[in-house]
Design a protein that fits this description.
Rossmann fold; 2 domains; globular; alpha/beta; about 40% helix; 7-stranded mixed sheet; about 450 residues; homodimer
Chain lengths: ~450, ~450
């Protein structure tokens, strides 16, 4: 059955998935519904319409339809950078002298540098189809903002990005990529929104936060004719679009008769992890096949490993709906780390439910060990990984080293979500031996937990 | 014959070329030999041994062998990022509303961000095979230094890069990528070499130049046991290794029965252009098929379009051999531009000979028009191109627009040599409307020409 495995398994364009896979359809324990932050009632389609695009709300609320066709226009865009390669990490295996077989799905082969583009083009497409003029969003590390600006440039849609001010200043190149794609980029907090002005009044010198940027983007979208707000992670619609990662991975493995034992992904809001594991988890839920799934999160922001499974606000500003999820509390401020894409207090509700049901494992790792893995990987595999992605590399290496001890020939698949070209400040710190680790104390976590909303039992 | 053309034509690993193609073997007018800068006699194998690796000297001097096998170790490295995709630019064609069919060979799918890696791994491999401890080189824009540091990390070879000081300071992220790969990076001029100290004494505040960095790298290699100097362009050995670009391009086109009319590449020292056109030019030289070839150079550094075909020094320091080439004179200082990779006073001798024989065309373009093309390309094709590569994009667009006027359905192929992730300062200048063009006057050129060496006729 096994053909010789190439370094990179590329699917043909004709083998690219024609539908996204909605994992919720196969879950017995469905994720809990979003709640209205004022009434604590489940959010309805109509509740969400002022903020989100119509079709995206349908996708957000649909936990029944297993396969949702990918429109041709989106498939054509995907063809510019997909199918993404599934790489057999021969050189890493050799370096580790492990009997394990390691594969990674590489999502960094596009200018946005990450998997975020998979959902950005879908969200921009539905916004365009609805006849909207533009979309607003927030960005922290900048990958999502970049992806969205690319998608909007392609479709001729206006794109307004609120970028956390400290990132805006520290990552001028990220900002310039977005501007090159025609997006307007506003440092947040800004004078352009009510909530921004209020925050600036209270905290004149603040560098901003993701929570604040979300609030500004939401306000900006709701107050302008023909605009809606879009989001790059956490939501179920994002998970749905990202299922293309897992579907392609599975198709490529199936082509060569390879069955993974362990599937590993980094986990911030969950967009990559959820997308990668979706079709495999579907098999597990349907009792067809068993896999180990490992979510890897930073020790500085351990929502799965140290958080609570509870209803919480999705944003720091508490204007967004409540989601039932593993959370550190929307008031938890993760210590500054070099994996901005993983600095989120909560976790997508589907992944949270699966984790709570014991269907998935989670581990947390410290950033110096992550950069050590990143550098080793870069040297032997030739790709400079994003710090976020490198969390998965770290644990893949750990698992491969366990195989070395036991002699087991396990097959390990991990998601390499993106490249680190815009993270060289972090690499520089690591190269200079100046990087440190931050692990919140129980007291730090208690502050976040204290702010969890009290939701009346139904 | 024509199958439906996918957006990206990927070859199988088994279809990857097994040999490099040495275009010189098919040339009737061979390029003139390198001359010893002191005696003006042709450089021999022994003359070159103190500076270059043995096997690379053989390749440099061999103008007879058409196909040189690629060692398995190099092929295995290539497999980490090759075969590189040949992309059908459907979206660009649609944007331009042209009947032309546009393809580009994309060489930016690796962490070094450019085609330079194709020769870096070959040069590092032969150095390692010779039992050397390490290699030295210079880098300006940083693509070559990055590529070499990746190749050396893979092979466990020491890598010392002399980086033009102004780039070292302005492109700290490039520097950090090299350091992440374990290379030592020294700003040039430095106190570590005799030539560096002399220059610093004369010009205490200088930002350095490529010519100075070459001199330091050559000195550093010659004075240390177990070290040799390597170079990323201009030399025939580099052109040979880069032929993999053209061979893959041709294999991919042949697979779909596509015959190009026009082949376009940007031209600095000639490494990419020479590699891309090699097998096609071979057919033309053998009278099998005709193509138009267009070399695109910056108007600020127009070696083909405004230079002289003469023997000249390859470096500003005049320590390297003389090469017969189109040159602006080794004393010509190109005005600062955002395409550091094209700021070279000369041109590879093979390409110079072909151009002189009327087998290839050349045009020069100004940088604002190049960035205009780059931005248009980025928006529709989703890849943020390097400024150097964007010279080829500019002329491909110009040719496609001519087809629009005439209605001709020409097939245009161009080389997209790399990505622009480390060129955001340039994009920022363009986005802010602050970019200007520099065209040397005839008086500027006269200064360079005046310094051309007087070589006795044989």
């Amino acid at each position: 059955m096994n053909k010789e495995i190439p370094y990179k398994i590329y699917l043909e364009e004709s083998e690219m998935p024609k539908s996204w896979y909605n994992l919720r359809a196969d879950m017995k324990n469905k994720p809990a519904p979003l709640l209205n932050p004022k009434t604590f009632e489940p959010m309805t389609y109509e509740d969400l319409r002022p903020v989100f695009c119509d079709e995206l709300i349908r996708q957000e609320l649909d936990d029944q339809t297993a396969y949702i066709p990918i429109p041709d226009e989106i498939r054509n865009f995907y063809k510019m950078y997909r199918p993404a390669p599934l790489v057999r990490a021969y050189c890493l295996e050799e370096k580790l002298q492990t009997p394990a077989k390691i594969y990674y799905k590489f999502e960094g082969n596009n200018t946005s540098g990450s998997h975020k583009l998979n959902s950005a083009i879908a969200q921009a497409y539905y916004a365009k189809k609805q006849g909207l003029k533009g979309v607003t969003t927030e960005t922290g590390a900048g990958q999502w903002g970049t992806a969205l600006s690319m998608a909007c440039a392609y479709l001729g849609l206006d794109c307004n990005v609120f970028m956390v001010k400290v990132s805006y200043e520290q990552k001028p190149f990220r900002r310039e990529v977005m501007r090159t794609y025609g997006a307007s980029v506003t440092p947040s907090p800004s004078e352009t929104t009510k909530v921004g002005r209020e925050i600036l009044k209270k905290h004149p010198g603040t560098g901003g936060s993701l929570g604040c940027a979300i609030s500004e983007a939401v306000e900006s979208a709701s107050e302008r004719e023909g605009y809606r707000y879009v989001l790059g992670s956490v939501l179920n619609q994002v998970m749905l679009h990202q299922s293309i990662i897992g579907l392609e991975t599975k198709a490529a493995l199936d082509k060569y008769g390879v069955v993974p034992d362990i599937i590993i992904g980094c986990a911030g809001g969950g967009s990559n992890l959820g997308g990668l594991i979706a079709p495999f988890m579907g098999e597990k839920l349907r009792g067809e096949r068993d896999y180990r799934f490992i979510a890897v999160e930073p020790a500085s922001c351990p929502s799965l490993t140290r958080g609570k499974f509870a209803y919480d606000y999705c944003d720091t500003g508490m204007v967004c709906p409540l989601s039932k999820m593993y959370t550190l509390g929307s008031g938890f401020i993760p210590s500054s780390s070099h994996s901005g894409g993983l600095r989120y207090h909560g976790m997508n509700s589907v992944l949270s439910q699966l984790y709570d049901d014991g269907l998935m494992e989670a581990v947390s790792v410290e950033q110096t060990s992550v950069f050590e893995a990143a550098q080793m990987f870069a040297k032997v595999e030739g790709i400079l990984p994003a710090p976020e992605s490198s969390h998965a590399i770290r644990v893949a290496i750990n698992e491969a080293l366990k195989c070395k001890e036991t002699g087991e020939e396990k097959t390990i698949v991990f998601g390499l979500t993106g490249t680190g070209y815009f993270d060289m400040v972090a690499y520089q710190k690591y190269n200079d031996g100046l990087m440190s680790d931050y692990i919140p104390t129980d007291e730090d976590l208690a502050v976040g937990f204290a702010g969890l909303p009290i939701v009346p039992e139904k």
